[in-house]
Amino acid sequence: MSSYSSSVMLHPTVLGCLLLAGTVSLGSTAEILENGLPILWAQTASQVSDLPIQNGILTPNPWNFLHRMSLYRLVIVATDPFKGSLGTNTTDSPLWGLALQLGWMLTSGRLADPTGATTCGLQTGDTSCISTQSWWGCINYFVSALPFLSGAQQGFMGPEVQVQMQVPADAEDLCTTYANCTALYPDAMSKWNAFFQGLKAAMESPLPDNEKKDYLLGLYWTAQMASIYASAACNARQSHYSSAEVSFANNWLHSAEYVSAVRFHSSLEKSVLFLSPLPSRVLQDAPNTADLSQEETHTLYIFSWMNSIDTLLGGTLIRAWRSAMCSVDAREKGREMLEQLVLNPSFPTSTVFSLITMTC
């Protein structure tokens, strides 16, 4: 078995891609693809035995970018035979959205140490390092480590595979094993268990494919949102960022409420559309946004608008949105509207209110 250690030597082309984390691409959207796949995908583990194993226990280091991206690759590969109604292409798994999201965090510099105390994740330091002080890296931990641990427990990584995530001394507040995560975050782990179990059960379900797809995406988004709620454990790390970045981060989290309600099929192709216009660098306090593209500026506006309106209405907008997304057809309309909101600057935001008046 190969030793896929956190000190893996990087090929020059790989190093060049990782250096993107410490640079800004002026006036352009975020770089999230490399040869049509997530950043550095070709350098990740293609089989479980490529990750480090100690005393028969799998011990990936989720604070190394390649290791963490490997968690996604291994889960996607392991669940592909069960995705059935979700699509026949290898790019149809909803987990691609999370893998692309991690790549965006890398190239936009959001995985680097925001405190400046270390060179973790910086061009001048270990470019493969994910800082334990990064709020973004911490949030992503809950949607990478937790589903991997659940998938392994459900047998997707092979029979009786045990996993112990490596943990730096300053990240001991996060769980590292299935038992530990279940004890600390029982709701999130039970929801991921339900998703993986649902994949297996759907293979034998007599439901039409469109209903099975909707059901599986419902399980998937319920699990992802449970992980996001559990990631409130990361909140203290927001103190390392500007008010502009914190505002964007909170608006970004809030937008997930709308996306989950429509059971967005976060395939590779669809996720690229929604992730490309995200800000390609960490935000500093306004007005330092002149280098952002028109697409990035529009996305920041839409996310801010959605959160601001919901706040003004005391949370009733998101509750009404969830209530309106009560059928397969309604969720399809909701997906189309969100796509227009994010990708079409001329689309009137007031249209949201017409959709939430729908009843099932």
Notable features of this structure?
two-stranded antiparallel sheet; 2% strand; 360 residues
Concise summary:
The chain has 360 residues and is mainly α. Helix content is 48%, strand content 2%.
Topology (elements, then pairings):
Layout (H helix, E strand, L loop, with lengths): L11 H7 L14 E2 L2 E2 L14 E2 L2 E2 L6 H15 L16 H12 L27 H7 L3 H9 L24 H7 L1 H17 L6 H22 L12 H19 L6 H8 L18 H19 L3 H9 L3 H16 L7 H5 L5
Antiparallel strand pairs: 1-2, 3-4
Structure explained in plain terms:
It is a single chain. This protein is an all-alpha fold and 360 residues long. It is 48% helix and 2% strand. It contains 14 helices and four strands. The strands form two sheets. Strands 1-2 form a two-stranded antiparallel sheet. A two-stranded antiparallel sheet has the order 3-4. The protein is globular and about 60 Å long. The protein starts with 11 loop residues before the first helix and ends in a 5-residue tail after the last helix. The N terminus is likely disordered.
The coarse overall form would be globular
The helix-strand sequence is HEEEEHHHHHHHHHHHHH
Query: What composes the largest sheet?
Result: 2 strands, antiparallel
Number of strands: 4
Task: Please identify the structural class as seen in this structure.
Answer: mainly alpha
- List segments where confidence is low: pLDDT < 50 over at least 5 consecutive residues: 1-27
Mean pLDDT: 89
Distance between the termini: 54 Å
Strand order of the largest sheet: 1-2
Count of helical regions: 14
- Report the β-strand fraction as a percent range: under 5%
What is the gyration radius calculated from CA atoms? Answer: 20 Å
Instruction: Give the proportion of residues in helices.
Output: 40-55%
